[in-house]
Predict the structure.
Amino acid sequence: MNMSQITITPCSPHVGAEIGNIDLTKPLSDELRRAVYDAFLKYGVIFFRDQDISFEDQMRLAGYFGHVHIHLGGAGTASKPAEGFPAIRKQHFDENSKRISGEVWHSDQSCAEIPPDGSILIQKILPPNGGGDTLFMSAYAAYDALSQPMKDFLENLTAEHDGAKLFDKGKVDEYPRAIHPVITRHPETGRKLLFVNPGFTTRICELSKEESNAVLEMLYDHIAKPHWQMRFRWLKNSIAFWDNRCTQHFAIWDYWPNVRSGYRVQFEGTVRPSR
Ligand code: SIN
């Protein structure tokens, strides 16, 4: 298969594209890998439909783009390792679930010193009447839309990201914690973006608690604006493949007590988020 055979259909002006005419159950040529990676960089999140992939296929796909990552959250997370594949997280939610993974705007594991670059999630079971969509937003577009004085104010600030905030609602202290710039620059595209999220970010280090809370609340409202979002409707064997360096996502839990069940793998980053 050569690169010209894949199709790329943007989903919204700022984020997301659907990739067609590709079979992820088969190894990809170098040319196809490059085309997929270029689309990932350009659109922030890419989607595939009707991909009945195995765990081996999912691991191979992630392995094209980086070292496959073992999730940091441990027992406090809502997902569990898939049997025999510790790097694959089973994200299964049903009538017994007390919470789900990712029901807040976040980029995956921004609490790590070097968060995973990419996440690849496939859904195998979906609620019968719809629901369980995922929202994605462009952290580039959110940054671009800030006024110049606000960009200047945020430019040299840093923020703490704490795994305990999302993974265990602040009950334990065993999760990773990291300090990252509030404004980062994507290491591959060179574009600037807003790198705080309500899932993990706890405070802006250089401000008082009151100032930090007020600024973060304003930024979280800004992140959640529909102008730089898209909403992905899953079907069985749909895949979403997102870049944690420049997007955030929000999984909607509107399907209880129905089942939504899928598997996610991630590949590691190589550099700390930086300006
Ligand atoms: C996540 O990885 O944050 C969950 C995304 C989803 O289930 O849609």
Observations:
- The mean pLDDT is 94.
